[in-house]
Specification:
The structure is a homodimer of 329-residue chains.
Chain A: H1 5-12, H2 16-24, H3 31-44, H4 50-57, E1 62-67, H5 73-88, E2 92-97, H6 102-114, E3 119-122, H7 129-138, E4 142-145, E5 156-159, H8 161-174, E6 180-184, H9 194-207, E7 212-215, H10 221-233, E8 240-243, H11 246-258, E9 268-273, E10 286-289, H12 292-307, E11 316-319, E12 322-324
Helix pairs in contact in A: 1-2, 1-3, 5-12, 6-7, 8-9, 10-11
The first copy, chain A, binds a DNA duplex (16 and 16 nucleotides) through α2 and α4.
Chain lengths: 329, 329
DNA sequence: CTGAAAGCGCTTACAG
DNA sequence: CTGAAAGCGCTTACAG
């Protein structure tokens, strides 16, 4: 049998309510009584049962996090940011991977709901109607991270993707590139698709250059390599490449080098994210630096505000991005 | 107010106990009654409160995971393996980062204990006495992952690090290398230190070659680069490098290239882990492939066995490693 | 400042 | 096959 609040109360010669009060600091307790309680706790090695507390107080001090895949570096770093802030506010996290599958996402929301999480952080692709409905049913605060709700119904933390893509493209233009390919994610993707294509197009249009958008099935290196090889094989050799992830950017560099093209001499490459990978290639990758860790941290901080009913000014956060220039451009 | 089991019971015209039984399948329920209950659940959109269930049943269906840092690719992939198996067995995970700090590790164990996790998966460095004592107090199953207990008191999942280091070194020797440097972790580290140094030494000794071990403060790229530059600057140019992580391996390649040495022409490099990074460099990195995902999966699978008191044969798992040959050797 | 008691939403012997 | 009731270990009005 483990030690309960009852044992502590008995040992200290007070009521359970009093023990609870010193534990939670929910009311003033005479200094002397407090000391007796603390001593008893110490002596017995008592640890409060958070599950019982959760049932009684209807607050579990845990936040659910749903992401497509923790093993992706971008996601892992974001989760780290979330976790650090959660710890700071004495919350723990329940983490689940959805692989971006809508049914799984809904499933996970349900399970977390059953676990009575105090809030949920969500990273995904499209916000389907079913998803929104499930969030609504769960009746707990939700914050999106690196995920946009085109209709702004749910608070979210992102960068300005359109502007970032514009900046990246513009940078290549200023370096003298005229035939710039965009290695894009799925066109209908609300983060790595549409808005970045828009920013890219805008920059080209200003110069009257032709757009050349290629969708990659995923943002992973292997797919990037494949896609790029296809482009180079068709002899549509660009002089600039904007890739929507560092992995695609590295793939771009390698595909060019493998084809005998010099980087940044003949082809310049710029990417998105500034994960650690960007500096682990030669030439090192110029990239739009996203504050990935901060995005997770801000999302979690915002969550704590929502949970504690603190006043909030903003609703959709757009964190600043930056251009980290290295030797691939 | 949310819907409780009481509401369902009333709607179905049965007792709470019966609802509980159909929910958990803990006893046979007449087909007709069952249907009534299921209909009521459906109609009301009832979801059982897992916290209340946890309090009553003393099982929370959650596993605590403590790792140094999820944002490290090795760790992230391992965690993914854990999570997938947990999902398979209907468990959820609480994830925390310790940054390898002993006090923090002990703290986290305490918090997870309060949360009544059914078991804990632990990845860390040294198993201090305090740590072991805390595990013991918590009275729940613990499994180590990519972490060794030199005295075998706690079940664990690893590869045979000594053998792996031997294999890597031997491979370079067979490729003709005579001056092989080991880019090692801290010498007293029970995973990336001692055992790998031992395997390395053994392989060299067989040939009568001289050992040259250099400790890196961390296993990260930046430190590897720094360390390697020091070695090359001292004009102690090796013809082979064994690095204990892929990041160090990539650093080795780049340091050599930057110093005008050809890889694998003048210097051959081999590393550990086979994370995705290994194939994202040129030349691609030859590396000891660790079944990272599987290590996490096996550890979690073993945990489910411990929790359910299934008979277990083994205690310390040594998963097979492999040598993935690429172009850096 | 402190205590007695109800209640959080389940599970689980115990009866029948 | 099903129900009534105790109990899991806390918190929280309510009294005093």
């Amino acid at each position: 049998m483990s030690i309960t609040i009852y044992d502590v109360a008995k040992a200290a010669g007070v009521s359970m309510a009093t023990v609870s009060r010193v534990l939670n600091g929910t009311a003033v307790v005479k200094e002397e009584t407090k000391k007796k309680v603390l001593d008893a706790i110490q002596m017995l090695g008592y640890r409060p049962n958070a599950v019982a507390r959760g049932l009684a107080s209807k607050k579990t001090k845990t936040i659910g996090i749903i992401v497509p895949d923790v093993s992706a570096p971008f996601v892992a770093e974001m989760v780290r940011g979330m976790e650090d802030i959660a710890t700071m506010y004495q919350y723990q996290i329940i983490l689940s991977n959805s692989d971006g599958q809508p049914e799984r996402e809904i499933d996970l929301i349900g399970t977390m709901w059953e676990k009575q999480v105090d809030g949920m952080l969500f990273m995904g692709n499209h916000l389907t109607g079913d998803l929104l409905k499930t969030f609504e049913q769960a009746q707990i605060p939700v914050v999106l991270c690196a995920t946009v709700d085109p209709e702004g119904r749910i608070p979210s933390v992102n960068i300005n993707n359109e502007q970032a893509a514009y900046d990246a493209t513009r940078f290549l233009i200023e370096k003298g590139c005229k035939h710039i390919v965009l290695l894009s994610g799925a066109t209908d993707h609300p983060v790595v698709g549409k808005p970045r294509q828009k920013g890219y197009r805008k920059a080209l249009k200003q110069e009257g250059y032709q757009a050349h958008i290629v969708e990659c099935p995923t943002l992973r290196y292997e797919d990037g390599l494949e896609t790029l090889k296809g482009i180079l094989r068709d002899n549509q050799i660009p002089d600039g490449i904007v890739a929507v992830s560092d992995e695609l950017g590295v793939a771009a560099i390698h595909a060019c080098l493998d084809a005998g093209l010099s980087v940044p001499g003949q082809v310049k490459a710029i990417a998105f994210d500034n994960t650690r990978l960007a500096s682990m290639v030669r030439p090192e990758l110029t990239t739009i630096s996203q504050p990935i860790y901060d995005m997770g941290a801000v999302a979690m901080r915002f969550m704590t505000k929502l949970i504690h009913d603190e006043p909030v000014e903003e609703f959709s956060f757009l964190l600043p991005h930056d251009l980290t220039v290295r030797s691939s451009t």
